[in-house]
Amino acid sequence: MSLIRYTPTPSDRMAALWTFLTVEDGIVLEYGPNGTTRFARRNLTRFGLNTERLISTGLTEDDVIMGDVSRLERAIVQLEEDYRPRVIFVVPSAILAVTGADITGVCHYMSERISAKLVTYEGGFVGDYSAGIRGAYTKMVQALTTDGGVKAPNRYNILGASVYSTTSLYDVSELAFLMEEAFGAKCGATLGMSATTGDLAGMGAAALNLVLRAEALPAARWLEEQWGTPFVYPPPFGVLGTRDFLEEVGRVLGTGPAPRALAAGKEPPSSVTFPERVTICGDYDFVAGISALTDELGIKEKTLLSLHALGGEDMEAGDIVHPATEKELISALGADTETPIIADILASEYLPAGKRAFFAGSSSATASAMGFRGAMKIGAYLSDL
Amino acid sequence: MMNWRSACSPSARRSINIQELKTLSQVRSLRDIPPPPYVTSCTHCPLYTAVRCAMGVRGAVTVVVGIAECAFYCHDIAAGHGGRSSGELFNVVLSWHDVTFGCLETLGKAFAELIDERRPEAVFIITTCVPEITGDDIDAAAAGFEAQYRIPVVVVHTEHFKTTIGGESVGTQNALAACAGMMERTAPDGSINLLGQGLDDFRSHEIWPFLQEAGVTFRRSIPGTPVSGMAEAANARLNVVPGTSGLFLAEEMERRFGIPYVALLPRISPDDVLHTYEELFGQLGIGLPERVRAMAAQAKEKLAALDGKLTGKSFFLGQVEFPIFSVTAMLVRLGMTPQLVQLLRGSPAEEPDAVNEILEKSDPLILQQYGDQGIDELREKLRPDMVIGIGVRRQRGEGSPGGFTAIGKFLDSLTAPPATPFGGRGEGGRGAYGGRDRGGREGRGGDRDRGGRGRGESRGPEGLSPQGLGSESLGSEGRSVGVGSWPEDGGGHDRGAAGQRERGGLGRGPNREEIGRGPEGPGSEGPGSEGPGRDRSGTGAGRRDGYRQQEEGDGGQGRHGDAMAAQHGGHERHRGGGAR
């Protein structure tokens, strides 16, 4: 890795922490130095998470050198005794990843001694936050979902929201609006944003899973295989994209979208002009979605930049690039001062001062880029240039 | 948002078996004290203090070598304390390849990039846990960089797993000690340095006016001296060290350059303080002012006046600015009985005389950190008459009046009436020297309320809570601060004179209570909305002499993106509550 000047890309382990913390009645136990947990608490509070539930085992030099895991065993037993949590997520620190402690093995035999479910995430050095989100989603659905009893025909779950994403909250709201308008459907659980173990247990009863980002596809596939719940992906970007999305959802639900909902999508009049080029920067699905949206607007020349590594078969890179170094990202964003930029607010610090851009998730863009409304908002921004 | 505790268990409660705890006679070092099974009130990593200290040296840039998390959190520190997220702080993020095959090649490339872009006057390289475990010889690499680029390159080691709970101050001490690597003794100039404290803070020390009257001036204070002035610090004839922060640097300068030092460390014995002042004025070649001797006499009288007043009272002792066993021994001499001593720094071996004196009369329990519930349970079980220094933010000595004044304040607090000038509307009350409100109500007007985790506390600069009133019920929400640790960073607390305030907005459930308790202004009140919230990051942490005050809390700034966004056109990140 080269020199980092700005905020570094979060690690997979950090993503696991913030994802597990969205389970409101679970405990996240960091097996590591308590200073690491303090740092995490401080940061994750800013994500709207209740970090009181993030607890540390503490770790000393003796534990590191001797490979003693009794501290972890004691913590699990005591937490069970003190709080009777329904689930304890165990996340070892990077130090343990280096020393190679078998945390999964420990939790395997410890699970026989307590009633809470033990879910481990042994990451660290397996990638950035994208990998961590993917791993955490999968662990959560595998450990905490059930068939949920009788299928609810008008209920769906959302997979792929993330507290780290600046736009997730708006995206979830927009999806809820679309699903209500088009099908009168209600959201059951939102994985990765806010849910109880009860919510997650009921996920199997939903008729449909909506997948917001590619990292949630392994979890969606598991839910489909295990509980027979189909899923729809990609999320709705652009007017045509949103129509396609609603029709696909309708096909799965066995009912067409309400005409009123479809009528809300209006393509721009032919008199409106758009720039010839655009740079898009953000998470993979944001970039892919906005790229599809700008395709509809006839914008063909694009620089597509992902803020995280493009991992796995679920992310077709195509023209999307994850710059290998921060310097390359800065260079790509600042290279052409004339090209308009649509970016996640997280990318703002890499832009040259004064460079004009549309920042999703910023105070000036308090809405999702998804759905008909998002398409029109982005279209309006680009047509004004 | 549900109350997670009740969600987990309506009667969640840690049960402590007192028989399993160690007593003083069984403890020689911190390692002898069994750690708690888990930690809910986490203390800082030395990286935190090291970064803040290094970033205070103007002209130098800081490079943190570690994993992505350490890098991410460091930038948050920088953004939260008035520093830019770039410009002063850089990172080298280690990949699995670096861990497996060594990180020196990566570090070398990054260093070349840094020199090419910034051309700094000096560089602090701060190592973290992972490179310390893998064993890369970063000191050797730094020496190579120094020779290659002809600038001082110093290394600060901050492996957290080697420090004990409460050992984060080692980061400051090591970072300051590393400054010796930027010094060069050329022509001794007879000057005096102040180490470990900015000059502004030292002005509040009781000895300052006497030094002023004697015409003593400090040419440099470290921190506070830029790289350009650091080299000549080695030309001084004496170093004065007002607290522990500068102790390592003083020792290093004595070792390298033969410069003697006088450490004005907090002492509970008036005689010890007097001896320190005699040594200081002796080194300065000035006679000790009679008024200083009079202050010593006053402190002794104050101590003597306590004789018989506290006899038979039992107590818990947590963090105080003095050596903890010396304080315990003094209280034992006053006829008091220590039931529990919380040891976060040092060890019994460092104060053998005091320990022996205590053991002649009693054998108190020794704890490191046991979490909020744990300490509450012990209080309920053991029912101490007084709780001293537990449940409040720690004081470090720096910035305090020091010497006899500090002793006097401490002694006064032992007999202070329950009514408190600092607020503390709870029924428990506390002494004038601060302490913990046991009544479960919001405390206000403390020295600097840091937005603790519960509703039932009020804090002052030092904790001392005479038992008696309100002792029947601690209040379930009164256990808000970890034993003797700094309260968790809830955000929303002030940051000093030029301080930054935060509007909460993020908070859901308990977090909303964390946010915005700063007593110094309305801006610190957090609205804590359930819906999409918004962080606002201020700027301008209190910075004096180039040094960001460590006594101030962390936390309080918005998410990293906010600080950055502010630089790029005022965009804020949005953050909100639940999706459902």
Main attributes of the structure:
heterodimer; A: 385 residues; alpha/beta; Rossmann fold; 3 domains; 15 helices; B: 580 residues; 4 domains; disordered C terminus
> Could you list the spans of chain B in which at least 5 consecutive residues all have pLDDT below 50?
1-12, 393-398, 419-580
For the termini of chain B, the CA-CA separation is: 11 Å
Helix content of chain B: 25-40%
Overall domain count of chain B: 4
Largest interface between protein chains, with number of residues from each side:
A-B, 100 and 100 residues
Radius of gyration of chain A: 22 Å
Can you name the CATH architecture of the largest domain in chain A? 3-Layer(aba) Sandwich
Q: Quick check: average pLDDT of chain A?
A: 91
Count every beta strand of chain A, where a strand is a DSSP E run of 2 or more residues.
14
Radius of gyration of chain B: 24 Å
Major beta-sheet overview of chain A: 5 strands, parallel
Strand order of the largest sheet of chain B: 11-10-9-12-13
Can you give me a brief rundown of this structure?
The complex is a heterodimer of chains A (385) and B (580). Chain A has helices at 12-20, 34-44, 61-66, 70-83, 94-99, 103-110, 129-144, 168-183, 197-201, 217-227, 239-253, 259-263, 284-296, 326-334, 371-383, and strands spanning 3-4, 26-31, 54-56, 87-92, 117-120, 152-159, 186-191, 206-211, 231-232, 277-282, 301-306, 320-321, 341-344, 357-360. Chain A has 385 residues and is of the alpha/beta class.
Describe the structure.
Chain A has helices spanning about 10-20, 35-45, 60-65, 70-85, 95-100, 105-110, 130-145, 170-185, 195-200, 215-225, 240-255, 260-265, 285-295, 325-335, 370-385; strands spanning about 5, 25-30, 55, 85-90, 115-120, 150-160, 185-190, 205-210, 230, 275-280, 300-305, 320, 340-345, 355-360. Chain A is of the alpha/beta class and about 375 residues long. Chain A folds into 3 domains: about 10-125, Rossmann fold (3-Layer(aba) Sandwich), CATH 3.40.50.1980; about 150-265, Rossmann fold (3-Layer(aba) Sandwich), CATH 3.40.50.1980; about 275-385, Nitrogenase molybdenum iron protein domain (Rossmann fold). Chain A is globular and about 70 Å long. Chain B is of the alpha/beta class and about 575 residues long. Chain B has 4 domains: about 15-35 and about 310-465, Rossmann fold; about 45-160, Rossmann fold; about 190-290, Rossmann fold (3-Layer(aba) Sandwich); about 510-575, no CATH class. In chain B, the strands form 5 sheets. Chain B has a 5-stranded mixed sheet with strand order 11-10-9-12-13, covered by helices on one side. Chain B has a 4-stranded parallel sheet with strand order 2-1-3-4, sandwiched between helices. In chain B, helix 2 (about 45-55) crosses helix 3 (about 70-80), helix 5 (about 105-120) runs parallel beside helix 7 and helix 15 runs parallel beside helix 16. Classes of the chains: A alpha/beta (about 375), B alpha/beta (about 575). Strand 1 of chain A pairs antiparallel with strand 2 of chain B.
